[in-house]
């Protein structure tokens, strides 16, 4: 399914709505976080790169974002795949898209804070655990991971 569908930055209001709807549904709603908590202040920064894999029907199958965070370094945040689409290569495609964007921006390293359950996904895609990091919502331990690109 996902291999033939393009990944791009959301353009229309409907695409932005689908983008944030998936972020909220996968990363915030299950922990009773309020609507709006899926948005970050620097989402609108011109240096932030957004990736959306839009499925037929106009819903978001996968999303993620990248921002520069240091000399040569970019951070990936808000990776989320629609539950029905998980395990089918969507996350891999979104992450590769962001890595390519990082490379085009002259970045040489990606860092991210992975939820414990997502650590094997990132390891599969070449990332290594650096150290434990924060615990989100009091119950979701995260791990700082990195990969040279
Ligand atoms: C984590 C997430 C983004 C991965 O996306 P996905 O589309 O399910 O992953 P993919 O199908 O692209 O998987 C790519 C590879 O990683 C492996 N993988 C994915 N999740 C895995 C897991 N939990 N454990 C072990 N391997 C995993 C896949 O088997 C696949 O390996 P392959 O090369 O042998 O085929 C997605 O499952 C998700 O949204 N999870 C819930 C939200 C979340 O945790 N987001 C990350 C926040 S840091």
Automatic annotation (TrEMBL):
This is GNAT family N-acetyltransferase. It comes from Hymenobacter rubripertinctus. SUPFAM superfamilies: Acyl-CoA N-acyltransferases (Nat). Pfam families: Acetyltransf_1. Gene3D superfamilies: 3.40.630.30. One of its GO terms (molecular function) is acyltransferase activity, transferring groups other than amino-acyl groups. It comes from the Bacteria. Residues 6-149 form the N-acetyltransferase domain. Keywords: Acyltransferase, Transferase.
């Amino acid at each position: 399914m996902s291999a033939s569908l393009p990944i791009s930055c959301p353009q229309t209001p409907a695409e932005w709505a689908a983008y944030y709807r998936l972020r909220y549904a996968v990363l915030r709603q299950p922990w009773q976080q309020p609507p709006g908590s899926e948005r970050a202040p620097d989402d609108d920064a011109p240096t932030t790169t957004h990736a959306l894999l839009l499925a037929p029907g106009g819903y978001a199958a996968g999303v993620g974002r990248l921002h520069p965070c240091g000399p040569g370094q970019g951070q990936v945040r808000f990776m989320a795949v629609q539950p029905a689409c998980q395990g089918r290569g969507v996350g891999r495609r979104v992450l590769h898209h962001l890595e390519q964007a990082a490379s085009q921006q002259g970045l040489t390293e990606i860092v991210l804070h992975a939820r414990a359950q997502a650590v094997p996904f990132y390891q599969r895609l070449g990332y290594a655990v650096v150290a434990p990091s924060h615990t989100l919502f009091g119950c979701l331990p995260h791990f700082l991971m990195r990969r040279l690109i």
